[in-house]
Design brief:
Strand content: 15-25%
Structural class: alpha+beta
Order of helices and strands: HEHEEHHEEHEHEEHEEEEHEEEEHEEEH
Distance between the termini: 37 Å
Number of strands: 19
Amino acid sequence: MPLQLLKYGLGLARADERHLPGETPLKKSYDVVIIGAGGHGLAAAYYLAHAHGLRNVAVIEKGYLGGGNTARNTAIVRSNYLTPEGVRFYGESMKLFEQMSETLGINVMYSKRGHLTLAHTDSGLRTMRWRAEVNKHMGVESEVIDPDDIAHLAPQLDLSRQARWPVLGALYHPVGSTARHDAVAWGYAREASKRGVEIHQQTEVTGFDMAGGRIKAVETSRGRIECGRILMAVAGASSLVAKMADVRLPIRSVPLQACVSQPLKPFLDPIIVSGSLHTYIWQSQRGELVMGGASDPYALYSTRSTLEWKEGLMAHMLELFPYLSNVRLMRQWAGVTDMTPDFAPIMGKTEVENLYIDAGWGTWGFKATPACGKFMAETLANDRPSDVIAPFSLDRFSTFQQLGEAGAASVGH
């Protein structure tokens, strides 16, 4: 528990009068301009100021703080990926999540629950064994368990052999967790602003003033900003913003929908994922069932919800939990995900000399928030990619060194 929260609970401290300072005019120039005030952009701003002493930093956001995909995800944190590069990166991210409440002085409601990725076929079970071996080799807790072990962890699942999709086993990730997404964004925003970072909401990027292969200034709806370096962290809008700088990205943007049920008494502790059914579910601290499925099968820059997706998800959900048939849905939403061909993110430099990119997160951007912020800040400060994120560079697509993370993105394809 954060010390500040304990003091407040005991009446020894008062809440801050204001979470963020009031709005200020844009300055003429900044050392670093970060486009996108979601979790990634705000985390990078915090680490630039905290770890590297770069305080002349502006974070500009078209909408409101944390209002994009940061507000539209399902808050799962895990590191049981398929490639060594992915496992290493997300392992670092989980370490930062574990200490985040203390680091930021805000309760991010980090909760270790355990994460079960179900296998319904022999091929699915082989993939789980593959992932488990890679995870263990990289020092991440992960193992394949049989239906009897699953029954002890999640007795609510339909584990009968008569089920349409019988469960043959699962990849068990004991440290799989959840965290409060908006608390993460606001925590990074507050700590970054305390260190001099300016956060400008309702400020849209309209273009770039370029010369000699670099960006001289960022054109916005509130005026022109000269800059030293630019970080683009705009999730589903990555291709649109990059196009303003004549940078072409191997990204396809598609909606990803999710929903929550009415609150129920607590009955489900672990996070349950079905790779074959493209379905996942966990129960929040408020009792709601948080549920999601595969991304939509067509490219679209829209955050609308559809009846077709909901019906398909509920059919699969009832195959796992038949007794939920009378539970009502309470809320449904969508985000826009930026999918790369190898299902791995893009981090690092672009062909434009001073433009850096944080994109291609697909269905797993929230869990990367602290690590991406830390290592992108290091990359910006030193003008060279951190070793941890070097394999995720944009040029891997031209050198045919793709990573192949699709096997660990159970609900993203």
